[in-house]
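in:
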C-alpha cells in the first residue's frame, strides 16, 4: 500500500469515527437551544451583576452585584467574568449570559468521549457522551447562568490533564491539572474540589514514578493549586474595605469569610436551623406569613397562609425556634424555611424539612436521598447501574501497583468522582441546590459506558432490570404512570432475546435504559424553566400556582418610571432589603440599587446611620422596604421616624417579597 493510500485510509477512518461524535454534539446543541427564550433574564441576581460589571473595571474585577458597587456577588469571579465578556460582545440578556454554559455543555460531549475512550474504547466513549447529554439536570443547569456548566467543563479539562500526567509521566501535565482545578475553584469555590480525590488517586496509584517522586510531584502541584485558588481572594482581602465593595454573604467583609462560611461550612450543615432571628422576632427559616397565621391559635391547630407568589399553604401550628408558633406545611408543600425562596417548591409526595435548607429541592440527608423525591428526577435515572457497575468493573486479575489495568484506572477516575459526589451530597444538611447534581453527569455517563463494554451479558441484563425497576419507581414519585413505561421493559426483553448478537443486544438494552431519561430531558427543555434555581422536569402533579410563580416577580412600570423621574442627579435609584428585590430594578434601569442586606438580607452592607448620611449627601432618596427580608430593625425604625411612605405608586411585585412599601427620605 502506498503512502498516499495509507494517508487516505487514515483520514477516512477519522471522519467515520468523528461522525457519531458530531451527531451527539448536534443533539446536545439542539436540546440546549430549544425553547430557550423562556429563560427570560435567567437568574436575575447574576444577570444584574453582569450588567453592573460592564460599567467599570472596578465593578468587573470585584464582581459588583449592582452598579453602585455596594456589595459583591457571593461567588468567585471567573464564571461571571466569562459571562460579562459574552455580554460585552452580544449585549446583556438571559440567553447571552447563559451562552457560556450552553457552549460548555456542548463541548463537554467530545471531551468526555475522548476521556472515556482512553481507558474503555470508542463504544464506551460514545455511550458515555450520550448518557451525559440525556441527563435532565445537565441540560437544565447549562441552560442558565449559574456557572455550574462552565465548572463541569473545566473539571473535564482537568481530568484530561491528570490522565495525561498519569500515562505520560510528564510533570507539566500534573501542574496543568492543578492549575485548571484552581480555575474551577474561582468559578464555584469548594464544589470544584469534589473530584480532587479521584484525580489524585489516579495519578498516585497509576503513574509509573517512584512513590517518593509521586508524593513530591503531588505536593508541588498542590502548592500551585492553592496559589491559583486563593489568588483573587488574596488580592481582594488585601484591598482596604473603603476601596472595594462589601464582600457579599461573608459575614465579616472578607473573601476568606465567604469561602469558609457561606460557601464552606454552611454547605455542610445548617447552622441556623431553629435559631431565632437577630432581632428576637421570627425564627430563622420561618416566614412572617407562617408566624402570623398562628398568632391567635393554639399548638397543633389547623392553619393556613398565602405565599407572596399566590400559593396557599395548609398546615399545623407547631413550635419553632424561639418558642413562637409557626404554620408548618402539610406533606408535599413548601417548607416554612424555604418559602422565602422565589421558586421554593416541594416535590409531590416529598415532605420538606424546615431544618434543611432548600429541602423542597433536595430532600433530607440520608442513604436514599438520590433515589427518592425530590432529588431522584435530576441525575439518578441510571445511578444504580453506574454505582454497581463501577464496583463490578474492578475484577480481572491480581492487583498490581502501579495500576496497569485500564478498567481499574477508569474506576479510580470515574468511580472516585461519582462515589465522592454521591456520598458527600447525600450527607450534607446545609445549602444544597438540586442543580449541584450536574457534577454527577460526566462520571455517571463514563461508568455506564465502561460497564456496558466490560460486563458480561448476564450481569448487564441484571443491572439493567434493576435500573429499570428504579426508573419505574422514580416516575411514580412525581404523579406519573405513563402506559408507555412498558416500552423500556419490552426493549430489554428484545435485547435478552437477541443476546447472541452483542451489538443488537447492547443497542436494545441501552435504548431501554435511556428511554425514560430522554423523555424527561425533553420535558425539561420544553416546559417553562425555573430561572432562579435550575431543575429537571417536575412532573405533572406540581400545583399550577407554583408552576406559574416565576412569571410574576417583577415591578410595575409606573414604579420604575416614578423612581427614574424622581432621582435624576441622585446616584442611587433606590435602596432595597437585598438583591432579591433589587436585581429586577438594576435590569430595568441599569442604575445603582443599594442592596442593604446583600444577597439574602443577612449582610450589614449599610447601617441606619449610613443611610441617613447618604440621604444627607444627596446620594439616596427612596427606599423600598418590607417583605420577608426586612433587614436590620434599626433601619425599620429609621424609616418610620425619618421617611414618608409614598402612596399612589403601585409596586406590583408578587414574588417572594410582596408587601413592599416605598419610602421617600430627605427633601
Amino acid at each position: 500500500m502506498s503512502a498516499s493510500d495509507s494517508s487516505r485510509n487514515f483520514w477516512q477512518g477519522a471522519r467515520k469515527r468523528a461522525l457519531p461524535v458530531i451527531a451527539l454534539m448536534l443533539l446536545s446543541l439542539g436540546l440546549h437551544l430549544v425553547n430557550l427564550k423562556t429563560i427570560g433574564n435567567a437568574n436575575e441576581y447574576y444577570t444584574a451583576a453582569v450588567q453592573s460589571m460592564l460599567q467599570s473595571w472596578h465593578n468587573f474585577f470585584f464582581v459588583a452585584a449592582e452598579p453602585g458597587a455596594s456589595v459583591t456577588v457571593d461567588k468567585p469571579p471567573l464564571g461571571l467574568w466569562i459571562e460579562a465578556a459574552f455580554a460585552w460582545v452580544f449585549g446583556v440578556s438571559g440567553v447571552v449570559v447563559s451562552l457560556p454554559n450552553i457552549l460548555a455543555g456542548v463541548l463537554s460531549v467530545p471531551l468526555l468521549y475522548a476521556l472515556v475512550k482512553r481507558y474503555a474504547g470508542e463504544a464506551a466513549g460514545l455511550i458515555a457522551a450520550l448518557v451525559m447529554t440525556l441527563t435532565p439536570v445537565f441540560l437544565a443547569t447549562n441552560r442558565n447562568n449559574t456557572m455550574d456548566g462552565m465548572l463541569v467543563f473545566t473539571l473535564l479539562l482537568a481530568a484530561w490533564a491528570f490522565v495525561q500526567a498519569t500515562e505520560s509521566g510528564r510533570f507539566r501535565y500534573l501542574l496543568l491539572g492543578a492549575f485548571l482545578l484552581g480555575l474551577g475553584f474561582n468559578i464555584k469555590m469548594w464544589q470544584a474540589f469534589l473530584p480532587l480525590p479521584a484525580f489524585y488517586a489516579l495519578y498516585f496509584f497509576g503513574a509509573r514514578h517512584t512513590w517518593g517522586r509521586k508524593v513530591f510531584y503531588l505536593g508541588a502541584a498542590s502548592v500551585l493549586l492553592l496559589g491559583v485558588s486563593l489568588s483573587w481572594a488574596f488580592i481582594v482581602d488585601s484591598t482596604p474595605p473603603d476601596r472595594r465593595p462589601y464582600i457579599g454573604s461573608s459575614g465579616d467583609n472578607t473573601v476568606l469569610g465567604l469561602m469558609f462560611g457561606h460557601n464552606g461550612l454552611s454547605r455542610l450543615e445548617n447552622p441556623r436551623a431553629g435559631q431565632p432571628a437577630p432581632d428576637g422576632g421570627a425564627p430563622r427559616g420561618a416566614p412572617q406569613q407562617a408566624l402570623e397565621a398562628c398568632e391567635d391559635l393554639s399548638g397543633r391547630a389547623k392553619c393556613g397562609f398565602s405565599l407572596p407568589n399566590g400559593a396557599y399553604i395548609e398546615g399545623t401550628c407547631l413550635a419553632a425556634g424561639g418558642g413562637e408558633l409557626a404554620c408548618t406545611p402539610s406533606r408535599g408543600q413548601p417548607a416554612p424555611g424555604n418559602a422565602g425562596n422565589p421558586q421554593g417548591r416541594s416535590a409531590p409526595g416529598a415532605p420538606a424539612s424546615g431544618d434543611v435548607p432548600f429541602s423542597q429541592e433536595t430532600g433530607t440527608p440520608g442513604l436514599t436521598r438520590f433515589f427518592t423525591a425530590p432529588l431522584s428526577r435530576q441525575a439518578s435515572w441510571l445511578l444504580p447501574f453506574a454505582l454497581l457497575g463501577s464496583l463490578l468493573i474492578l475484577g480481572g486479575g491480581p492487583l498490581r501497583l502501579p495500576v496497569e489495568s485500564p478498567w481499574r484506572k477508569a474506576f479510580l477516575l470515574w468511580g472516585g468522582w461519582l462515589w465522592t459526589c454521591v456520598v458527600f451530597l447525600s450527607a450534607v444538611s446545609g445549602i444544597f441546590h438540586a442543580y449541584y447534581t450536574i457534577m454527577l453527569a460526566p462520571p455517571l455517563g463514563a461508568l455506564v459506558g465502561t460497564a456496558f463494554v466490560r460486563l458480561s451479558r448476564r450481569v448487564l441484563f441484571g443491572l439493567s432490570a434493576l435500573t429499570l425497576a428504579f426508573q419505574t419507581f422514580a416516575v411514580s414519585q412525581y404523579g406519573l404512570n405513563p402506559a408507555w413505561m412498558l416500552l423500556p421493559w419490552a426493549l430489554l426483553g428484545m435485547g435478552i432475546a437477541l443476546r447472541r448478537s452483542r451489538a443488537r443486544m447492547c443497542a436494545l438494552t441501552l435504548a431501554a435504559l435511556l428511554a425514560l431519561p430522554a423523555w424527561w430531558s425533553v420535558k425539561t427543555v420544553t416546559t417553562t424553566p425555573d430561572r432562579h434555581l435550575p431543575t429537571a422536569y417536575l412532573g405533572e402533579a406540581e400545583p399550577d400556582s407554583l408552576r406559574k410563580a416565576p412569571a410574576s416577580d417583577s415591578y410595575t412600570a409606573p414604579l420604575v418610571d416614578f423612581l427614574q423621574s424622581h432621582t435624576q442627579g441622585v446616584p442611587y435609584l433606590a435602596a432595597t432589603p437585598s438583591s432579591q428585590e433589587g436585581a429586577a430594578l438594576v435590569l430595568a434601569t441599569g442604575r445603582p440599587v443599594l442592596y442593604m442586606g446583600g444577597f439574602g438580607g443577612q449582610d450589614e452592607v449599610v447601617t441606619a446611620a449610613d443611610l441617613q448620611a447618604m440621604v444627607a449627601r444627596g446620594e439616596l432618596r427612596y427606599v423600598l422596604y418590607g417583605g420577608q427580608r426586612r433587614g436590620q430593625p434599626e433601619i425599620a425604625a429609621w424609616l418610620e421616624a425619618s421617611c414618608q411612605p409614598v402612596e399612589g405608586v403601585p409596586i406590583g411585585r408578587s414574588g417572594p417579597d410582596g408587601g413592599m412599601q416605598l419610602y421617600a427620605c430627605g427633601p
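note: The chain has three domains: 27-237+368-454+509-525, 288-355, 553-665.
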